[in-house]
């Protein structure tokens, strides 16, 4: 089954850091856009960050700009989300998602969950003192 796999969630104090990984080794990596989303009970799923083949054009939600950094490793077929200066409101289930797009592709809409075809199971992130 074609599915990205998340890892790296956990519990951290406010101000702390976590790095999430999204392994996409079964995909043709150069042709996928990968997004990170988070969801908390009672709220809609929120697009956090996304990246395409052009690593110079990542997208971030306003709430995480300056604190989160997305990157992709072509050799490892993995996308990372480095989360620094975490806040309690960052808590939630973080999922990565992938979609095939021919190159050249745009990341203009990649924060929308409706763009994606393949979803991981999610990993829990808890920021609490």
Please report the total strand number as a whole number. Answer: 11
Assign an overall shape: globular
- Determine the strand fraction and express it as a percent band: 35-45%
Low-confidence stretches: none
The string of secondary-structure elements, in order, is EEEEEEEEEEE
Quaternary status: single chain
Structure report:
The protein is mainly β. It has no helices and eleven strands. It has strands at 5-7, 10-12, 18-23, 32-39, 46-51, 59-60, 68-73, 78-83, 92-100, 118-119, 123-127. The strands form two sheets. Strands 2, 4, 5, 6, 9, 10 and 11 form a seven-stranded mixed β-sheet that branches. The chain has a four-stranded antiparallel β-sheet with strand order 1-3-8-7, with no helix packed on it. Strand 5 and strand 6 (59-60) form a beta hairpin. The model has no long low-confidence stretch (mean pLDDT 95).
Keywords:
129 residues; 43% strand; four-stranded antiparallel sheet; mainly beta
Blueprint of the fold:
Blueprint: E1 5-7, E2 10-12, E3 18-23, E4 32-39, E5 46-51, E6 59-60, E7 68-73, E8 78-83, E9 92-100, E10 118-119, E11 123-127
Parallel strand pairs: 2-11
Antiparallel strand pairs: 1-3, 3-8, 4-5, 4-9, 5-6, 7-8, 9-10, 9-11
């Amino acid at each position: 089954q074609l599915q990205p796999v998340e890892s790296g969630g956990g519990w951290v104090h406010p101000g702390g850091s976590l790095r999430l990984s999204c392994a996409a080794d079964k995909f043709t990596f150069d042709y996928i856009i990968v997004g990170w989303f988070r969801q908390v009970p009672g709220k809609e799923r929120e697009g956090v960050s996304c990246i395409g083949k052009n690593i110079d054009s990542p997208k971030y939600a306003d709430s995480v700009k300056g604190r989160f950094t997305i990157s992709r490793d072509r050799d490892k077929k993995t996308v990372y989300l480095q989360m620094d200066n975490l806040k309690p409101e960052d808590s939630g289930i973080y999922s990565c998602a992938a979609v095939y797009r021919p190159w050249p592709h745009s990341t203009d809409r990649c924060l929308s969950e409706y763009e994606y075809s393949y979803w991981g199971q999610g990993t829990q992130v808890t920021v609490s003192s």
